[in-house]
Write a structure and sequence with these properties.
globular; 947 residues; 32 helices; 8-stranded mixed sheet; alpha/beta; 25 strands
Length: 947
């Protein structure tokens, strides 16, 4: 390195958690570790489409090696800001500085900066020495500075303070920053400045830098390197390059190549693929062009048509065409995600994917027994800061972290395969910390969204914004739906194409109608060619799944009145045939938990007084059970009524909206409260769901449907018929306009049959599509008011989503735009769903002797922290699996101290947020507790009851 200044290894990069008897880990070595890991991530972790996108964003489409070196340089400079007042934030690190450095401590620490911001401010001077043009506004040098400033997950606004900030120290400190940077630059082959550096690709590079930093900042790795420092930086860098594959593999991030199996073997399904699935395998490869810019596939078919397997088959085709590695499969709810996780896990195992990283991604994933039974011990801590960061995390944050690295905070989406709620992906387009890491995780996979119809206008805007970014990165997308209005699918497709570079003007008058059932593939290349499923296979699919559904409307009155029209009396009458003779299976779908509980009580008293737990013929399923109970009940229902289930002689399942999506069950009759038409069709999808399959492959126990169930039937309980009004509590769920429109549509087809799938799209469009946006202004005042309120609410939701979402990819000029809203620091400060203010309630029991227990019998005391102040992961999981998700506004006017957690839980990041309902025990019976003017109690059979 000649006579130029060399990096002084007294300047430390890592200290906390390392051996205090050895010098702190030198900064220059940590920078080289990160650079080496970034190079390896480029080589084996980034997908082909990610590498293409980054290279194109640097103007280096024809020189990916140069792009690779620049990514390594960004990682190798990420902590350059630690050559600043940061050096004084650790006593151990400070002690190894020489006297001349310590003499500047007072001046350098008078005003404190985070080292990320310090690095961003110092970058101009450093990059100029490396040969970058630092006078080009928004040129590559400023972009690298933004990446350095964003490596802790939040981008900052560039300003003109530059390297003169007192926190950065004197000229001697500046020379060391240059020495450190030149060492990294030289060992990377002295990469040169690119012509430009586009913002969306800089976001991906930031994600690479964050991931590289995390991987080489693991405590066990740093301790090993600290004990055995190589004699030269050249040898150190060589060792870091050699270590990178092991670190990546140990983290679960190594790519596993599946051994692709035939359809039936891959998915554990008897028989050949249906025409929809076969068309994806045979026809989609011809539709996918040679252009690498991605494409979007819309699959539309009735519930039970095998859309999930069709999506996984499409992933094979799209990943091969565009070079993505694995997939992310997103669903609307925790329950549907849990079920899909099991299905995907089985498919991977059958294709020799035992070593493939598959994560379950939602807020309660670690409570799922299928996911988390293989270990809850904390893994190696990632040492990412040394005390100069604001908003420090609780020291007990690792208590609930499972053993595997991928299951740590913010990491699960990085796995090759991920299944979870769509909320986890939508976080990437909200101004939250580490949204760049989420975009990195998503942009390397085929992106699958199931139940695309299930999201409200607010979430649709966020999903569209995410599709815009994925279009920019050339990510193949698959959207699945049974009841998606064409206007919504058009908006989503257009947003994706805009991200891929098509102008809004060219797309304005374009429509992309998908066949129903069937699929439509739109290529992101020039021309955006749209290719539908062939008509021959579409007709085959329609014929194979053809069903004529009898639809009946029953006028009902809620409450105690109504006589023969009383809602509960009507339900009892409809279920009479099931009680005797041949029995049968019926599904009763209620709009609220309270209605479901009341209906269940009434039907139990009428047909079978045994409880759900005792094996009674009447079962209850809703979201207000403790987590472990809900998981068990869901499994019982689907195991009994699924395609291969035991099929009981008599079964009445009373449920809420939890059965609308992706739950596999088959009923002889479906009875439903009035709901928006698209949701009624989803509920009806559980009626005779497996009839065609059983006709070909045999019925469970050879049990035929009862004689009274001559045809599939949906009975809608309509309180609006005959001039009625919806119950007040329904207004919190569905707008009166949608209910009234659905009521009118159901009245028109009352007594007739609906052809599934032929009539589905037309019915959906009549209530939810563009045609429904016009309104008859001669309607009565109540209808006019309902329409105005409905349209106003939709407009407000879209507007609010537009305000909180990050800009479209092409509109980002400076990276701070991804965090431009004040105060949005982390996930819990933003919402992916409006009205999603929920809390978790632990229903505990106060025994006569004053003890508080988890069970009414008093045998399970509330866990307490040990002598070290920590709660074991097993204890945390036990508590959280007993909690119930409830609306936060139930407790808005309540003194939270009355519901506060035990003192020893106050510092725990999860348990401290749990509200406690302490139910007094009297003569062995838990008593209700009055909270906010309402009575609350956890009933073993009914779940949480609120009256």
């Amino acid at each position: 390195m000649g006579s130029r200044e060399v990096p002084d290894e007294m300047f430390w990069g890592k200290s906390r958690g390392l051996d205090p008897d050895l010098p702190a880990y030198p900064l220059v070595r940590h920078l080289l570790d990160a650079a080496a890991m970034a190079l390896h991530l480029w080589d084996v972790y980034l997908s082909a489409n990610q590498r293409r996108s980054i290279a194109a964003g640097l103007g280096l489409e024809d020189d990916e090696d140069a792009a690779r070196a620049l990514v390594g340089l960004c990682a190798g400079l990420h902590d350059i800001g630690k050559l600043s007042g940061f050096q004084f934030c650790s006593r151990h690190g400070r002690e190894q500085l020489d006297a001349s450095c310590r003499a500047e401590e007072k001046q350098m620490t008078a005003d404190r900066l985070g080292h990320d911001v310090a690095g961003m401010e110092a970058a101009e001077h450093v990059l100029r020495v490396l040969g970058f043009d630092t006078y080009d506004e928004l040129g590559a040098s400023e972009r690298v500075a933004e990446i350095i400033g964003g490596h802790h997950g939040r981008f900052h606004r560039l300003d003109d303070s530059g390297h003169d900030d007192p926190f950065l120290g004197s000229e001697a400190w500046a020379r060391q920053r240059i020495a450190h940077a030149e060492t990294v630059h030289e060992l990377l082959g002295a990469p040169t400045e690119p012509e430009y550096f586009k913002a969306p690709q800089a976001v991906l590079v930031t994600g690479v830098v964050i991931l590289a930093d995390w991987l080489v900042s693991q405590e066990h790795y740093l301790r090993r390197r600290q004990r055995n420092l190589e004699p030269s930086l050249v040898k150190h860098f060589s060792q870091s390059c050699a270590d990178a594959p092991g670190l990546l593999s140990d983290a679960g991030l190594a790519t596993v190549k599946l051994r692709r199996r035939a359809f039936s073997e891959a998915y554990g399904i008897d028989g050949a693929p249906n025409p929809l699935q076969r068309s994806v395998t045979e026809e989609l490869p011809r539709a996918v062009g040679a252009d690498p810019r991605g494409g979007i596939l819309l699959v539309t078919a009735a519930p039970g048509d095998g859309k999930s397997e069709a999506a996984l088959e499409a992933e094979r085709v799209l990943s091969a065409a565009f070079g993505t590695r694995g997939f992310v499969f997103l669903l609307p709810t925790v329950a549907t995600s849990d079920q899909m996780y099991s299905r995907v896990s089985g498919a991977l195992r059958r294709q020799s994917g035992h070593e493939a990283a598959l994560t379950l991604v939602h807020s309660m994933a670690w409570l799922n027994s299928a996911y988390s039974d293989d270990g809850l011990e904390a893994g190696s801590e990632v040492l990412t800061c040394e005390g100069d960061e604001s908003g420090s995390v609780s020291s007990h944050a690792a208590d609930m972290r499972p053993r595997q690295w991928l299951r740590g905070n913010k990491r699960p989406l990085l796995a090759q395969y991920a299944v979870g709620t769509v909320d986890q992906a939508l976080m990437s387009v909200l101004p939250v910390r580490h949204n760049a890491l989420r975009l990195l995780a998503l942009s390397g996979k085929t992106f699958i969204v199931d139940e695309a119809h299930a999201y409200d206008p607010y979430m649709q805007v966020l999903l569209a914004r995410l599709l815009n970014w994925l279009g920019t990165y050339g990510v193949p997308v698959v959207l699945l739906s049974a009841t998606l209005p064409a206007s919504v699918s058009d908006r989503l497709i257009k947003e994706y194409l805009q991200g891929a570079g098509h102008s809004a003007r060219d797309l304005k008058d374009r429509s992309s109608p998908a066949p129903y059932p069937g699929w439509l593939y739109v290529d992101a290349a020039v021309g955006a060619q749209a290719t539908p499923m062939s008509q021959v296979l579409q007709l085959e699919q329609a014929e194979e799944r053809n069903m004529r559904l009898r639809v009946r409307a029953e006028s009902v009155v809620h409450g105690a009145k109504g006589g023969a029209r009383n809602r509960l009396a009507v339900i009892e009458r409809l279920l009479e045939p099931l009680a005797g003779g041949e029995g049968g299976v019926a599904l009763v779908v209620c709009n609220t938990v309270g209605d479901a509980q009341e209906t269940y009580r009434k039907l139990r008293a009428r047909f079978d007084d045994r409880s759900h737990e005792d094996g009674g013929m009447v079962q209850l399923l809703h979201a207000r059970f403790p987590g472990d109970v809900r998981e068990l009940r869901t499994a019982e229902v689907t195991d009994g009524l699924g395609r291969g289930g035991s099929r009981p002689v008599r079964r009445i399942v009373v449920a809420t909206q939890v059965i609308e999506q992706s739950l596999d069950l088959d009923a002889d009759l479906v009875i439903s409260d009035l709901a928006p038409l698209a949701l009624l069709l989803q509920r009806a999808g559980r009626c005779w769901r497996h009839e065609n399959w059983w006709a070909r492959h045999g019925r469970p126990r050879n049990r035929r449907r009862p004689a009274w169930a001559r045809e599939p039937a949906l009975v809608v309980l309509d309180p609006l018929a005959e001039g009625g009004t919806p119950p007040a509590q329904w207004g919190e769920i569905y707008t009166e306009h949608l209910l009234a429109s659905t009521s009118a549509a159901i009245t028109d087809i009352h007594g007739a049959t609906v052809s599934i799938p032929d009539d589905v799209q037309g019915l959906v469009e009549s209530v939810h599509g563009t045609a429904a946006e016009s309104f008859d202004w001669d309607a009565d005042v109540r209808r006019r008011t309902a329409w105005i309120q409905h349209r106003g609410a939709e407009t407000a939701e879209r507007g609010q989503a537009g305000l909180v979402a990050i800009p479209r990819a092409s509109q980002v000029h400076q990276l701070h735009a991804l965090h431009s809203l004040p105060g949005e620091e982390d996930e819990w400060e933003t919402a992916t769903r409006l009205g999603a203010d929920s809390v978790r309630l632990l229903c505990a029991y106060t025994q006569p002797d004053g003890r508080t227990t988890l069970d009414p019998q008093g045998t399970q005391p509330l866990p307490e922290a040990g002598p070290d102040g920590r709660l074991t992961p097993t204890a945390v999981r036990t508590v959280m699996r007993r909690t119930v998700p409830v609306r936060g506004d139930w407790f808005r006017e309540v003194d939270r101290e009355l519901l506060s957690a035990p003192v020893s839980w106050q510092e725990h990041p999860m348990l401290s947020e749990v509200l406690h309902l302490r139910q007094p025990m009297s003569d062995g019976v838990p008593q209700a507790v009055t909270v906010g003017g309402k009575s609350l109690r956890l009933d073993a059979d009914l779940g949480l009851v609120r009256l």
